[in-house]
């Protein structure tokens, strides 16, 4: 939720045309994959402060936490799995996709030596209310298998699921980076990834905001997009340096593991080319019983502010009457 906050001193540079010195506090929802790194770097490196926002991204332990924060209104915007705007498109104040966050980096990982055909009758884990649930459904489909052929197990958190996989109690589990890269080095099999299941590039997480927030605060949306774009540039140009601020959010991994993960799941804020890939997942979500598509489903995209932000240099993006004002 956006809240007024006193002006705050900081070391981040401010552009001459940047926003009013009265900072706005912003609670951001987010996931745990490396596809959220652009948001973390923007928060931890002070990039939001450049544009008049004091952003917070508190730790979240469950995959459903992000969805709950956005649905309750406690968080007005943030990063979330790319299927959530589809699932929520019929709600009274639906989510709007305002940009991207990260792409690729999702796979169904199996025990060493296993193949997809070996999963019949086996326990296979995934996560409800997350794109990985759709990945499992579609991975089975492209390999000619019926979901009823496996014993599907839904987990609320990554830690419990990983424990069951690494101790042999699961035959396979849908996972994200940097876990995929680590488990591959340990001999686990990539049974099917998103490229295979969906036929090309795909997003993992998106930058979203509730419709009412986009309508009421376009200047905050633009500021958020600019901070995320700056973070993407920092990660792309010097990932090792960018990770200095945010590696603490992935305490189980070494810097080299994170760098490998970033290469497999890079940041992408301009998500517009993947629009059709997102819409195409509606059919699978309907098959899973997660949603029923309506005529308004294509309204989930709200890219006009992204286009405006991309068209202007960062120092000029907010040199207008749309500058953030105290609420």
From TrEMBL:
Entries under InterPro entries matching the protein: SsuA/THI5 (IPR015168)
The keyword Signal appears for this protein: yes
Record Gene3D superfamilies: Periplasmic binding protein-like II
GO annotations of cellular component type: periplasmic space
Coiled-coil positions: none
One protein family per Pfam: NMT1
All copies of domain SsuA/THI5-like, residue ranges: 38-242
Location of the protein in the cell: Periplasm
Keyword terms: Plasmid, Signal
Family according to the record: Belongs to the bacterial solute-binding protein SsuA/TauA family.
Protein name, as recorded: SsuA/THI5-like domain-containing protein
UniProt source species: Paraburkholderia aromaticivorans
